[in-house]
TrEMBL record:
Gene3D superfamilies: Glycogen Phosphorylase B. Pfam families: Glyco_trans_1_4 (PF13692). It comes from the Bacteria. This is Glycosyltransferase family 4 protein.
């Protein structure tokens, strides 16, 4: 969708298809968008349709998500980063904080311009330095531990 920056992704692919292969996953919300894509970009972007993220990630080295809206968390960005992919995205909403935990998340306000200068050879694609778990069970456990600490400190202060 345009909110996710698909138009920017298409422009990047169009300008750089001589250097890289571009794949896109997902579908279109209306036939006009699909027709526009087919006319303008189908020769430079291979559209996979709706696929599981895991299957998509097996086929790519980098993920370009130049989102335009204030993404509250960016779950897809986390999943891509944890899969050791380069993640090129925008500093919007909670995404800015993810950059602090994942060295393979790169931020730019203008990927149309900055993509050409991005140095894949020297960039970090590994997320192994991130020790934060985003698993629901782990987060619930951390909340429980914190809650117990708060309760015990209140009891000791009585």
């Amino acid at each position: 969708s345009e909110e996710k920056g698909f138009d920017i992704f298409c422009d990047i692919a169009s300008a750089n298809s001589h250097r890289y292969k571009f794949l896109a996953a997902g579908g279109f919300t209306n036939s006009n968008d699909k027709e526009k894509f087919d006319e303008s970009y189908s020769d430079v972007i291979r559209l996979l349709g709706i696929v599981e993220l895991e299957d998509f990630l097996k086929q790519v080295d980098a993920v370009i998500l130049p989102v335009k809206w204030n993404e509250p968390f960016g779950r897809v960005i986390v999943e891509c980063a944890k899969a050791n992919k380069f993640v090129l995205t925008s500093p919007k909403g909670g995404i800015t904080e993810l950059n602090e935990f994942f060295p393979n998340v790169y931020l730019s306000n203008d990927w149309r311009k900055d993509f050409k200068q991005f140095d894949f050879a020297n960039a970090i694609s590994e997320s192994s330095s991130c020790q934060i778990s985003f698993e629901a069970k782990e987060i619930a456990s951390q909340y429980r531990e914190f809650y117990i600490k708060v309760l015990s400190s209140e009891v000791s202060n009585l």
